[in-house]
Amino acid sequence: MTEFNNQLNVSNSEIAKFEQIASQWWDLSGDFKPLHQVNPLRVQFICQHIALHKKDLYGKQVIDVGCGGGILSESLAKLGANVTGIDMGSEPLNVAKLHALESNLSISYEKITAEQKASQAAETFDVVTCMEMLEHVPDAASIIKACSTLVKPGGLVFFSTLNRTVKSYLLAIVAAEKLLKLVPDGTHAHEKFIKPSQLIGWAEENGLTCTDTAGIHYNPINENHKLTANLDVNYILVCQKIA
User: Fold this and answer.
1) How far is CA 56 from CA 88, 129, 152, 157, 242, in A?
2) For the segment 176-217, what is each residue's pLDDT rounded down to a tens digit?
3) Contact 76, 83 (CB under 8 A)
4) Model's pTM, two decimal places?
C-alpha cells in the first residue's frame, strides 16, 4: 500500500480565500467567471483523450480532486460519469452539494484530502482530474502521487495549473488580479506556479506517463479561451498510469 505523510497537505490561508467567496461559485459574472469560461475547454480536452482510447465517460468512475464548488464535476456527471468530488473547503462543498441537487445530478462530495482518499481507495478510478489546484497546496508532488494512487492501471489523470514564467506573472497576477480584476487580488502566488517539466517529472516518478499537453490561451478582448501549443501561462496535460 502506498504510504503518505500523515501531516495534512493543506494551506489554511488558501482554504480561507475560497471559503470567503464560495457563495459566488455559480455566479457566471462573479469571481469564478474565468473558471466557467475555461471549463468547456477542459471538458473538451478530457473527452478527446478518452476518445483516443475508444471510450467515453459514460459509467466511468471519476474523481475530481480539489473540486471546489463543482463546476467540472457537474460537467463530467452530465456526460454520464459516476463522479466523486473531493475538497477541503467546507463552504465550497456545501455550494457544490446544493447546486448538484438543484441540477438533479448525483455526485458524491467529500471533505477529504487527496492523500487520505488515496489511502482508502487505491486504483478505484478510471479517470482522475486535478484542475487549478496544485498551485494552492504546500506539497504539489504529494498530490500527484495521490492522483497516481487513485487511478486504475491504464487509467488517465488530467492536471492543469500555471507555468512559472515571467509571462505568467504578468498575465495571471499583474493583469488578471491587479489591473483587470478578473480574479480576486491574492488568488495566486507566483512562486507556487509549476513548470511543465517539473510536473511531468513528478508524474513519471509515480508511474504516470505524460501523453499530451496543451496551453490554455485567454483573449481579454473577446473573453475567449482556446487550446494552443504554447505552455507559457496556463496549461493542461494528460498522463496514463503504466499498467
Assistant:
1) 29, 15, 16, 15, 20
2) 666 666 666 666 676 778 999 999 999 999 999 999 999 988
3) yes
4) 0.92
